[in-house]
Amino acid sequence: MSDLEPSAPLQGPAESLRAVGGKGVLELLPGKTVTLGERMQVHRLLPTLGRRMVGPWAFVDHYGPDDISVGDGMQVIPHPHTGLQTVSWLIEGRVHHKDSLGSDVSFGPGELALMTAGHGISHSEQSPVAHPRLLQGAQLWVALPDAARDTAPAFAHHADLPGFTSDGLTATVLMGSLGGATSPGTAYSPLVGVDLALDAGADVDVPLEPGFEHAVLASSGSSVVEGAPVEHGSMLYLGTGRRTLRLSAAAPSRLLLLGGTPFEEQIVMWWNFVGREGEEVAGFREQWEAGERFGHVEGFEDGERTPAPPMPPVPLKPRGRDC
């Protein structure tokens, strides 16, 4: 998925619900609405003012449920990426992925579509011509550490993912490990990404890695996390140091748990690129505009690609995860 508003201002300060000594925090990140493609609207949770990353997770868009029975649904034409992984997760609907490696895959709910941009890749994401009525999901980016950010691009589709059940909870592990289940997705930093489906009346403790920082996104319905209500489309930052997480729900709901070792490297993230210096990112933009580095996605006419926006008027500077 493409960040079509790279120069848009970040939202205002997040609301800190409660500080818990030695057990992290509860910091609500309500997000902002962004238009994707021609008409589709998404809710952007990361990056936001004061919270740019959660572990290596550097970008979180949530969308839906959207009724796309009339219209084309998601239509994101070829665009480039470097220095990151995209993690695509659907709750409802289907998406057709094509990329410059020749990958041509349609995926649906419960399936992991994992693209490693590395040195450079371009791809498209579209609702199939014949598609389900509803579309709902999340698009996530993982910043690659410096040692891996120039790795060869790759794409993997995992239709079957591991998980576990407990006290009204069904967990599906997208990335990393939780509760004895380990995702087949390749990761380059210690991280975790888990879909948590709660039954009505569920009240359960979920184990966490205390060395990770975590956040939860209310991807469907509303839940209560450590006593704090989290409404649909909102994300709650949890800090570090937690060994368990208390979850409950009055009605069926879904949460997306994201976490990882705090990412200590400073990065420049602009448009669809993750680099280390502003000049490097400007070079990526020039290469995309020149038709270099990122390859070609078959099935699109010459010139049918997302143009890069102008560089911002001020220099891009490396930033840490909290600024």
TrEMBL record:
Top-rank lineage group of the source organism:
Bacteria
Signal sequence annotation? none
Q: Which residues form the Pirin C-terminal domain?
A: 194-293
Boundaries of every Pirin N-terminal domain copy: 42-142
Annotated stretches, region: Disordered: 298-323
Pro residues composition bias: which ranges?
A: 307-316
Q: State the family it belongs to.
A: Belongs to the pirin family.
Q: What is this protein called?
A: Pirin family protein
Native organism: Klenkia sesuvii
